[in-house]
């Protein structure tokens, strides 16, 4: 039976209203923004110019929008919605509302105000303002203000920007973004969140491999699996049929899609790097890249560059478009266990080998920094890199967190057990570890304190996925657990949890996003745990 234990810590939380202060900056602060307006006989322009000449005047946009909204016979005004809360919180006695100025200086009617406000703003300015909203409900509310805003809120750019803010699954945003209906994506994501919470999912089994599953990747419509049987199988995500089988000469140890999602790069146990064309199912390139098996392979976001790390202690840089080796970088004293690209500087790569992590400049091939401090080996799946922060764990029962902007490591978290997997989220000040003692632990990083312990697994936890809503853990005991956060609680505490049973041997790899888990096991099977229950007519090419 699964249980959770909580370590109480004092937390201070702050809630912020929808970010619309940018509208004031765009409309009333920057002189360059005035170029966006039609200057001919515009009373709004006169007001803006007056504001630029008198910094003591603050204009309350909320009142103007409220009038326009009420003029549309909508009972919920924009001010009641809290859409523009915080734009004018000044206590300055000289503050004047935009409505009052329009009424007094121009003798405009409410209809005129509506025309002035809506018609004089270029659409690109409104889109820029709306892109600052952080919740779907806010966008839906402002769509009720008037027909023009309703039309603008259908702009895919607004929904794509919201998706980027809310999603932990942005790596599929690689190409043809304009073809994706992000409003549909967010709706699907919202439905899935309810299913995650209530433990509702559809489970499907993919069978075909003759040996253990070593790697799984997903590009939105196709699942690709690698196995110790030296084959790569391509599965249709919606029909669950195996559409193609690629015969690899050696065991596939790791895989990844290229930046276009049209090619597959594989690493093998004998040091070969193969590049496969997903559309033609042909082998485009095969290179003996290393003298030991390739344990890690990572592409550099939206570029054609990728790196491989091997037990031969070396890191190689490749160009997938040319199918050739760019350079070999320096080496570690022991085999390479992890490599990750820095999301802030695309030229920087972080690798681990033995008890050391290194930061590389792939442009020059030089090691620009060594991160030392571990007394024991850093394990596979125990490197997390995000926003200039690096977390490493493994043997020795502690996690070291490095700030690349500082010379020394910033935090040392004592985990009391060997780490087999971890994920660190600097923005949430939180880290989750999968431990040898069969436990999943959630840590508050700034205080190095244990927030919660999740007990349900009966073997070491080798897979961790963590986002704002839940934790997914996989284990050598063949089971997956979903630990849902209690969204009503100010602290990040688990409200409920669900056990996903079905595999008959240890779970070796998994692909996890907001709507699904695709797990590969040593039982030679792949299981799809679909929390969105996507129908054929509601397919989404990104999730």
Automatic annotation (TrEMBL):
Keywords: Repeat, WD repeat. WD repeats lie at residues 206-245, 245-286, 287-328, 371-412, 412-453, 454-493, 500-539. SUPFAM superfamilies: F-box domain, Tricorn protease N-terminal domain, WD40 repeat-like. It holds the Pfam family F-box-like. PROSITE patterns: FBOX, WD_REPEATS_2, WD_REPEATS_REGION. GO terms for cellular component: transferase complex. Residues 115-162 form the F-box domain. This is F-box domain-containing protein.
């Amino acid at each position: 039976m699964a249980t959770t234990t909580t370590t109480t810590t004092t937390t201070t939380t702050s809630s912020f209203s929808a970010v619309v202060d940018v509208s004031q900056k765009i409309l009333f602060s920057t002189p360059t923004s005035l170029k966006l307006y039609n200057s001919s006989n515009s009373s709004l322009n006169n007001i803006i110019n007056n504001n630029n000449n008198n910094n003591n005047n603050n204009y309350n946009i909320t009142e103007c929008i409220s009038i326009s909204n009420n003029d549309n016979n909508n009972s919920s005004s924009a001010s009641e919605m809290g859409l523009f809360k915080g734009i004018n919180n000044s206590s300055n006695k000289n503050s004047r509302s935009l409505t009052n100025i329009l009424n007094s200086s121009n003798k405009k009617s409410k209809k005129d105000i509506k025309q002035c406000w809506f018609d004089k703003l270029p659409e690109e300015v409104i889109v820029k303002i709306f892109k600052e909203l952080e919740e779907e409900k806010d966008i839906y509310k402002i769509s009720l203000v008037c027909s023009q805003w309703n039309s603008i809120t259908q702009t895919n750019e607004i929904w794509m920007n919201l998706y980027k803010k809310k999603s932990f699954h942005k790596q599929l945003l690689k190409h043809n973004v304009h073809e994706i209906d992000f409003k549909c994506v967010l709706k699907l994501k919202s439905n899935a969140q309810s299913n995650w919470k209530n433990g509702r999912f559809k489970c499907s089994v993919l069978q075909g491999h003759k040996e253990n599953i070593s790697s799984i990747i997903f590009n939105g419509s196709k699942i690709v699996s690698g196995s110790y049987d030296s084959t790569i199988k391509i599965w249709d995500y919606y029909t669950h049929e195996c559409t193609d089988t690629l015969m690899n000469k050696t065991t596939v140890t790791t895989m990844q899609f290229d930046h276009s999602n049209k090619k597959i790069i594989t690493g093998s146990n004998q040091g070969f790097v193969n590049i496969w064309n997903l559309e033609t199912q042909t082998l485009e390139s095969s290179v003996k890249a290393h003298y030991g098996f390739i344990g890690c392979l990572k592409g550099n976001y939206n570029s054609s560059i990728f790196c491989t790390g091997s037990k031969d202690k070396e890191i190689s840089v490749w160009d997938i478009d040319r199918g050739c080796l760019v350079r070999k970088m320096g080496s570690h004293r022991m085999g390479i266990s992890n490599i990750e690209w820095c999301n802030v500087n695309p030229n920087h790569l972080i690798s681990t080998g033995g008890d050391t992590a290194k930061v590389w400049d792939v442009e020059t091939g030089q090691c620009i920094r060594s991160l030392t401090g571990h007394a024991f080996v850093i394990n596979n799946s125990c490197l997390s890199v995000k926003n200039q922060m690096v977390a490493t764990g493994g043997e020795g029962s502690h996690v070291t967190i490095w700030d690349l902007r500082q010379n020394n490591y910033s935090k040392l978290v004592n985990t009391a057990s060997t780490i087999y997997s971890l994920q660190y989220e600097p923005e949430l000040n939180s880290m989750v570890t999968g431990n040898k003692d069969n436990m999943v632990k959630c840590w508050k990083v700034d205080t190095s304190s244990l927030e919660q312990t999740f007990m349900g697994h009966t073997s070491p936890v080798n897979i961790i996925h963590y986002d704002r809503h839940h934790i997914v853990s996989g284990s050598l005991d063949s089971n997956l657990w979903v630990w849902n956060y209690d969204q009503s609680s100010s602290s990040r505490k688990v409200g409920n949890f669900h056990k996903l049973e079905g595999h008959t041997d240890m779970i070796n790899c998994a692909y996890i996003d907001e709507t699904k888990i695709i797990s590969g096991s040593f039982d030679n099977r792949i299981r799809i745990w679909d929390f969105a229950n996507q129908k054929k007519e509601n397919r989404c090419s990104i999730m």
